[in-house]
Specification:
Helices cover about 40% and strands about 20% of the residues. The chain has about 250 residues and is an alpha/beta fold. Helix 1 packs across helix 6 and helix 3 runs parallel beside helix 4.
Length: about 250
Amino acid sequence: MRIAVAGGTGVVGRHAVEAARAAGHEVVVLSRSSGADVLTGAGLDERMQGADAVIDVTNTTTLSAAKAVKFFETATRTLLAAESRAGVAHHVALSIVGIDGIDASYYAGKLAQERAVAAGSVPFTIARAGQFHEFAGQLLSRMSGPVAVLPKLLMRPVAAREVGEHLVRVAEGAPAGRASDLVGPRNEVLADVARRQLAFDGVRRRVLGVRLPGAYGRGLASGSLRGGADALQGRITFDEWLRGDDHLPS
């Protein structure tokens, strides 16, 4: 197969690219650095020619619902239009488990993305996954000072490597509308994993977990982002990931 990976240089994208190549597929990376822009459409038609499937793992960093919705709707519609012109037979979109009742902040953008995919003309599969093991470190890196304040979040984190592998398996199959959710092997609390990561990296920093207000905060603390009992489970625990090659020290 020829698989195009939108966002193929990112946290999950690079693992999807690696997994697809290891499985013997021809891979095309769609990113600004490769000359393809999912927002403007520049370079997409040329790089998408002959693709059998597109895996979309593009992302934006924002807590603004309006900005998230604009990004994901624009990127999705631009990708789907290019896929339609190229005759792509399968669009695979990465989303997040348990967000149906949290149409706020960043999750509003992901729900808008899912709606745009479903409304498009390209056969699709939406593959939801839990937060990545990398998530705590991403948040910590965006904060300065001796104290990190993180939202109260009950989650079941999964390694980005396993998410990338899962997305390739989904792309290899027929469009299914929704794939089985993928979550990690253990229930975790965001503040706890952040403390363990800092301790492992030898960083002295205090972590506070706080309940955020509104629908977004309620959703994070509710446990819905742990996924359901029927979700597929990854193998790599957070602590195993810390000791592995994919973890970059803080």
